[in-house]
Amino acid sequence: MVMSRSSKLLLHVVILAGCVLMAYPLVWMFVSSFKPNADIFANPSLIPRTVTFEHYKTGWAGLSGYTFGTFFVNTFIVVAFSVIGTLLSCSMAAYAFARLEFALKRYFSRSC
């Protein structure tokens, strides 16, 4: 299907508008993280009147005794075990595909 130049331009405009529409909440959330609590909904613009890092200080210090470092270490442990498990299982599967004969071996080797 050959598209005319005007239809390509219209397609790009629609895609760009969709990107802006989907990215705006993320940008607004990031900018709002630098605003005081009272200004988040009172001042809906993307330019904050006053810049504060209070939300980041509170988030790093944590609430109820758990700091950000605790969550970071827990996440690192989960990711490390996931990577090790994936490497082991994928290595064993790759060995099976390379060395062993089975019924659908030709089908799986062509689909990749």
Automatic annotation (TrEMBL):
Keyword vocabulary terms for this entry: Cell membrane, Membrane, Transmembrane, Transmembrane helix, Transport
Gene3D superfamilies, alphabetized: MetI-like
Presence of the UniProt keyword Transport in the record: yes
Chief location bin: membrane
SUPFAM superfamilies in UniProt: MetI-like (SSF161098)
Transmembrane residue ranges: 9-31, 71-98
Subcellular location: Cell membrane
Membrane topology: Multi-pass membrane protein
Protein name: ABC transmembrane type-1 domain-containing protein
